[in-house]
From TrEMBL:
<dbReference type="Pfam" id="PF04082">
    <property type="entry name" value="Fungal_trans"/>
</dbReference>
<dbReference type="GO" id="GO:0008270">
    <property type="term" value="F:zinc ion binding"/>
</dbReference>
<keyword id="KW-0805">Transcription regulation</keyword>
<feature type="domain" description="Xylanolytic transcriptional activator regulatory">
    <location>
        <begin position="134"/>
        <end position="252"/>
    </location>
</feature>
<keyword id="KW-0539">Nucleus</keyword>
<keyword id="KW-0862">Zinc</keyword>
<dbReference type="GO" id="GO:0003677">
    <property type="term" value="F:DNA binding"/>
</dbReference>
<keyword id="KW-0804">Transcription</keyword>
<keyword id="KW-0479">Metal-binding</keyword>
<dbReference type="GO" id="GO:0006351">
    <property type="term" value="P:DNA-templated transcription"/>
</dbReference>
<dbReference type="InterPro" id="IPR007219">
    <property type="entry name" value="XnlR_reg_dom"/>
</dbReference>
<protein>
    <recommendedName>
        <fullName>Xylanolytic transcriptional activator regulatory domain-containing protein</fullName>
    </recommendedName>
</protein>
Length: 312
């Protein structure tokens, strides 16, 4: 969990150099897949212990946020600085505190408060700029997790509709860009653009885990998020936690030197492709090993889920 940083320099998010390398419409349509599977989709069968692991980790995100002990590791430390916190996220971090110790019988009142804010946030999301839209996407995911883990008392029809809205928000935010233009050229982007792209990708990965867990609990099939193929895997802890531009640029230069052929992609953590020869398999495992050397707790969690589910 991230805490408000001390001494992090002020950043300017007014000019972001981003691009979107995937078909984001498949993100907003993802909720349909469990009911009307598309040709070629690959099922993702989580073992029961993996579903339980995802449940406990995501529950810890919701609980720590509700207790004011930090923010989930898909929210960048710079986003919770007083000078850069966007209204959807700052409102969320304040509102969820009512769920820290709800009095017996008051859970429905707290849920109503969160649900009204979620409806308002979703209704207004088309008016947001890129940073506010990212904050709205993150806030909505946090609200969903808090509703489920802190206030849920049985089936919640609102939550299923909320997940559809969440995927729509994810699509809208992703459409504004999921990678830095420089990243695609294996060059160093500006810090602000990288922060936004990395935070979006982490939030997207967390949403997919949460959605898959809910579907598994409901006995519905889950499918591999092939629409995310080609997105970078979570970045190193040194890049994510850097507190100054100089520190971040130094770490990114090291990253470029270490990954001359490009960093690890999320699909390199998925099932081993049919027909991959021994040399290709060894190269893939070496790349994953190199990635594991520097990742933070979010990357470690993601690797644990994919490794236990897909092997490799």
């Amino acid at each position: 969990m991230s805490r408000a940083p001390e001494g992090l320099e002020t950043l300017d998010f007014s000019v972001l150099e981003l691009c979107c390398p995937i078909n984001v419409d498949d993100i907003s349509n993802r909720w349909l897949n469990s009911y009307v599977p598309l040709p070629g989709q690959k099922t993702k069968d989580y073992p029961a212990n993996v579903t339980a692991f995802i449940y406990r980790i995501l529950k810890s995100y919701a609980t720590a946020t509700a207790r004011g002990r930090g923010v989930p590791p898909f929210v960048h430390p710079s986003q919770i600085m007083a000078t850069s916190t966007r209204l959807p996220l700052s409102n969320c971090l304040s509102l969820v505190r009512i769920c820290e110790r709800p009095l017996p019988g008051s859970e429905s009142v707290a849920a109503d408060v969160l649900q009204r804010e979620m409806s308002c946030l979703y209704d207004q999301h088309q008016t947001y700029d890129d940073m506010a839209l990212l904050a709205a996407f993150q806030a909505y995911l946090i609200y969903c997790m808090v509703l489920f883990f802190r206030l849920s008392r049985g089936p919640n029809p609102f939550l299923r509709q909320a997940m559809t809205n969440l995927q729509d928000l994810a699509c809208s935010s992703s459409r504004r860009g999921l990678m830095c233009i420089a990243e695609r050229r294996n060059a160093r982007p500006n810090w602000e653009s990288w922060i936004v792209a990395e935070a979006k990708r982490r939030t997207l990965f967390a949403m997919y885990l949460f959605d898959s867990m809910l579907l598994s609990q409901d006995g519905l099939p889950t499918f591999l998020g092939t629409e995310l193929q080609g997105l970078p895997a979570p970045a190193s802890k040194f890049l994510w936690r850097a507190q100054t531009r100089n520190e971040w640029e130094r770490e990114y230069n090291t990253h470029l030197a270490d990954w001359a052929e490009g960093g690890l992609y999320i699909d390199e953590l998925w099932p081993i492709p049919t027909g991959l020869d021994e040399r290709g398999l060894l190269e893939r495992r070496n790349r994953v090993d190199q990635w594991l050397e520097d990742i933070d707790e979010f990357g470690t969690m993601l690797y644990a889920v994919t490794s236990c589910t897909h092997g490799g």
